């Protein structure tokens, strides 16, 4: 099969589109013939070696398609079923992916197309756990979310509104700000032109926000602590601008008894029950039009490097997909 592999960590040029053996499903595993593979910022960290892995490896962890073969002991799925997933240990930028059956989610393609399911799994479940579990938003809460027009960002804005919260977004360009507003953001700060700390304070009448959802990391973390109200929550869940340097914990005391957490999707989909709760919530909202998924770019699998260059170059909005 064709797949995109990394042999040496590096820039987008480190992605090699090449022929590799088609993987066989082992016991408890399922092989999926992919209709679309999701591109996520974590793939950039893996490509660059920020999260080191043994090379060579097939990049990617998200996708959707049809079950093509099942391993011993798999009863829940059979050939031809439509499925989606957000974790494929053997990689997902490929024509086929092998996934543990207990990480697969059934997809009703009459309600949600396979491509849309591929676009919604990882970022959708992330927005779900952030807004429903890490800091469960309620009416009366005021939240700040960075990179609001990104893949996670647009979904997070919509879910925050579903929970009845007020949400302020940040965005890098006026076009991105428009998309974040369309998704439901109450206010959007163009943080490439304005100081988001001052703007957030102004918007909240000096009160600050209950929670900051920060996926940008190095460039925004410190400012984020300054816009939290007393006992506010800093939810650091990414590092698109680079890792946050070590922090003196005393600062949390000085700034008002703040909380900081650094969660991952794996922590919030640890059991099958939790995985299905989040995935099925996301898919059902898409199916009944409560949640909109913006596919901001579709690339042939062979052009994964171009998708990476666009994502890292801050040129994208919503979700990027690769089509094998
Ligand atoms: P996005 O679509 O959000 O793309 C990244 C965005 O970050 C850019 O479009 C840009 O938006 C913003 N950004 C700010 N500074 C930079 C920079 N220096 N370089 C590149 N981008 C920058 O990506 P995803 O939705 O895939 O992921 C968003 C973040 O969430 C990532 O950090 C990712 O690692 C994290 N994540 C974490 C998960 C978890 O469970 N912990 C799960 C899923 C994602 P703008 O131009 O508007 O600033």
Automatic annotation (TrEMBL):
**Biased segments, Basic and acidic residues type:** 1-19
Cite a single GO MF annotation.
Answer: quinone reductase (NADPH) activity
| A single cellular component GO annotation | cytosol
Q: Which UniProt keywords apply?
A: NADP, Oxidoreductase
The Enoyl reductase (ER) domain, residue ranges: 10-322
- Annotated region described as Disordered, given as residue ranges: 1-25
Protein name as it appears in the record: Alcohol dehydrogenase, zinc-binding protein
Biological source species: Rubrobacter xylanophilus (strain DSM 9941 / JCM 11954 / NBRC 16129 / PRD-1)
Q: What is the lineage of its organism?
A: Bacteria, Bacillati, Actinomycetota, Rubrobacteria, Rubrobacterales
